[in-house]
Amino acid sequence: MSTDTVETIRTTVPVGAQYAPGSLLDWSEALVPGDIVLDERVAPNAPWSAVVRAGDVLTIVDVGGNQSADCLMFNAHDTSERYSVPDTLTWQGNAYVREGTVLRSGLGRPLMTVVGNEIDRQDTIGGACSKESNTLRYGHHTAYQHGCRENFLAEASRHGLTSRDLVSNLNWFMNVPVEADGALGIVDGLSAPGRRVAIRADMDVLVIVSNCPQMNNPCNEFNPTPLRMIVTRNEDTVR
Amino acid sequence: MVGARDTASVLAARADARAQGSNVSDWMPYLPAASSPFAPEGVDPSALVWAETVAPGGYTHKVVARGTRLRLEDVTGDACAHVLVFNALEPWERLNVADTQKIPWQAYLGAGHPLLSGEGRVLATVVADTSAHHDAFCGTSSDEWNVVKYGDAAPQGPSPSGRALLTLAGVKHGLTPRDLPPSVSFFQGVRVEDDGALAWQGSAGPGTYVDLVAEMPLIVLVANVPHPLDPRTDYVVGPLRVHAWRGDPSGPADEHYSASPERERAYLNTTDYLEARGL
Ligand SMILES: [Zn+2]
Predict the structure, then answer these.
(1) Mutate to test the interface with A, among B161, B171, B172, B230 (most CBs of A within 10 A)
(2) For residue A4, what pLDDT is reported?
(3) DSSP assigned state of B203
(4) For residues B66 and B124, what is the distance between their CA atoms, to the nearest angstrom?
(5) Contact, A147 vs A129, CB < 8 A?
(6) Under a CB-based contact definition with an 8 Å cutoff, are residues B59 and B165 in contact?
(7) Chain A residues touching B234 at Cβ < 8 A
(8) pLDDT, averaged across chain B
């Protein structure tokens, strides 16, 4: 999970996306202050997961700027209840995620709420990249490149979850406009190094994140960078 | 704009994506399979159903029909194909390495060797082998093993474990980690010495291949990672080439079918099972 890991071995595994040396990084700090109960760095391209307790706030820092953090959420005590894009959008009557957006499950219940947001809008339409969809979007030569679905599946398997448990997800710091004629796609991002989003858990939530390793579109500015995940707790907000 | 690339609008981003469509890679599937630039000699390309070069540290998977002939080729001498096969109709029937060694009275995989399930049936048969450097003892690498050996085991990291890759391959067919039995591996040999020591043989060099015949519809999972006993401290594995083409399952006319009484009964069991299913 640490970006400080030094690679000491030589490997013949083809290099995935790597962030450009000298990239401006801003590690920032928690958007909602409180006692820090977790503070972890997610390496470029890597998955991450944690259970965020009800009332705790997860700050995600876009350390290098315009780095998509693909995100899935589950009720930590019954993972058949999970994040639902349509419930989230329908309930708020808007296609974009912003401060105040309640991230709902397929049962319509709040999983988490966006309590802080430093970019114009967040995406939950664009879904996750995968090795398989890469072959559709860019050609078969990309079949062995990395994808978020691999990260999701690998991290989900650590929690007993499988492909049946993956649903449409949320992409922090990614930009997917829907234009007037219906054109939709991933375009240059609206974020910058150190920008943050803060989401409060409304129940105990298992959060799974893929730090997107895509090499073929601007969801990470073609330069995958680290993320910082900070969970803070305020006793008066703990449920 | 990101550098020289214009991805600022949806139309520009679409044009940027589509401009990549004709690129090629050293590791990729070839579609349709008949278009493979590496079609095996003597095989009618129109019979190909699967053609792919698996990346070092990569994996692949496919459901293949009964009778399919599957060729795995070690292009550089550094590939290591960790293989699991399942009955595609009832995937809880799967490779049983112990029976695969015990029933034929033979520990070392080679031409004619059946890959047996735990149900007394043959899932696949090794029908050709120019390598003779294989292993059915050591299984594949686990996360714990690779973390100790290389410092990392993540499936998309610099040194993925075979178990992590087979887990991902299996997930794509509804299989979970508990569905993964011990696997066999091709192209990096291991021999058991008199005192029981597992002795690393390495490969037979570049360009060898192994052919398997599917004796029933199979889910095939393949991870291409270093053999766990590979003595090199670096993570060294070469590309693995995969071709499959339409063919026939083993039958009484094949020498290996009746090479031993146990095997003949295993093929009879398999045919009995398939005929009752209408296959
Ligand atoms: Zn992605």
Answers:
(1) B171
(2) 46
(3) -
(4) 9
(5) yes
(6) yes
(7) 9-11
(8) 96
- Residues A150-168: b if buried by 16+ CB within 10 A, e if exposed: bbbbbbbbeeebbbebbee
Partnered with residue B73 across adjacent β-strands are B209, B241
- Listed residues: CB within 5 A of ion ligand 1: A 129, 148, 212, 214
Give me B141's structure tokens: 């690498």
Pairs of residues, one from chain A and one from chain B, whose beta carbons lie less than 8 Å apart: 143
Interface test with B, best of A6, A8, A10, A13 (most B CBs within 10 A): A13
* Neighbouring-strand partners of residue B245: B48, B69
Find out whether A43 and A5 touch, Cβ atoms under 8 Å: yes
CB contact under 8 A, A183 and B58: no
Which sign, positive or negative, has the C-alpha torsion B123, B126, B131, B133? positive
For chain B, the structural domain boundaries read: 51-275
Q: Does A7 touch chain B (CB under 8 A)?
A: yes
Distance CA A5, CA A41 (A): 11
Hey, which residues does A104 pair with through a beta bridge? A110
Other Cβ atoms within 10 Å of A71 Cβ, number: 26
DSSP state of A175: B
* pTM for the predicted model, two decimal places: 0.87
Distance from CA of A135 to the nearest CA of B (A): 9
CA dihedral A44, A159, B98, B128 (to 10 degrees): -40
Nearest to A56 by CA among A212, A200, A224: A200
Residue A143 burial (CB count, 10 A) = 23
Task: Give tens-digit pLDDT for B230-240.
Answer: 999 999 999 99
Length of chain A: 239
Domain ranges for chain A, please list them: 37-233
Nearest of B157, B213, B164, B212 to residue B59 by alpha carbon: B164
| Residue A5 pLDDT | 47
Q: How far is the CA of A191 from the centre of ligand 1 (A)?
A: 16
* CB-CB under 8 Å, A7 with B158: yes
Q: What angle separates helix A148-157 from helix B162-171, to the nearest 10 degrees?
A: 100
CA A22 to chain centre: 24
* ipTM tops the 0.85 cut: no
Candidates B23, B75, B150, B156: best to mutate against A (most CBs of A within 10 A) is B156
Taking the centre of ligand 1 as the mean of its atom positions, its distance from the CA of residue B146, in whole angstroms, is: 25
